[in-house]
Amino acid sequence: MSDTAAATPALSDVTAAYDEAADRYIELVGSVERVGEEDRAAIGAWAADLTGPVLDVGSGPGHWSGYLHDRGIEVEGVDATPRLLAHARRTHPGIVFRLGDLRELEPEHRSLGGVLAWFSLIHTDPALVPDVLRRLAQGLRPGGSMLVGFFAGDRIEPFDHRVITGWTWPMATMTGALEAVGLAVLDARTWRTPNGRCNAAVRARRVD
Has UniProt tagged this entry with the keyword Methyltransferase (predicted)? Predict the structure, then answer.
């Protein structure tokens, strides 16, 4: 067991927590119009030169998959929470959403134009994140890109997320993890939310 595993909630606990909070979660962030301006700016900039297919990892209520689909980008969503998946399927019937554990995803080699991991790694044991990134990066074709959203902090440490325990990452550590799996970091940004937390986004591209 890793040093961080004891502080990381089990997937079953994460799923149960999001299932229980699904109605409130959807009310707060279940559509693009309800999320923060910086979130829209980060994903909008990434999507500007994006071609599909795209894998939306941790797609939740499906709003970002819907956003990409409305831009004419082929996208598939994956999430571990049945109630959020059910909402996504009802709200965006033209998109495939499937149940899955991001820790076990194995996209076909060089099959994807993009991977969106928007705050979907925050409940994952940090010791496992490099391997998750490696497998997702292998799914990107040359020129394909990944956008990772996360909570930034001075160190990798757990915090009291509103749904269930999450992890913060230093920006340099996350960019280093992406570079370690063969991606070139294109840009990185941080911003403060109204509740004072520091959000972050990194865009990285496969160049080989």
Answer: yes
Q: Pairing relation of β-strands 198-206 and 140-152? A: antiparallel
Q: What is the pTM of this model?
A: 0.92
For the stretch 4-49, pLDDT in tens is 866 787 877 777 777 776 777 677 776 788 788 999 999 999 999 8
CB atoms within 10 A of CB 64: 26
Residues 6+ apart with CB under 8 A from 190: 152, 171, 198, 199, 200, 201
Angle at 63 between CA 60 and CA 68, to 5 degrees: 120
Q: Does domain 5-206 have CATH number 3.40.50.150?
A: yes
What is the Cα–Cα distance from 104 to 150, expressed in whole angstroms?
Answer: 20
As to burial, measured by CB atoms within 10 angstroms (0-12 exposed, 13-18 middle, 19+ buried), residue 33 is: exposed
Handedness of CA 76, 48, 190, 173 (dihedral sign): positive
Q: Which two tokens stand for residue 132?
A: 């998750």
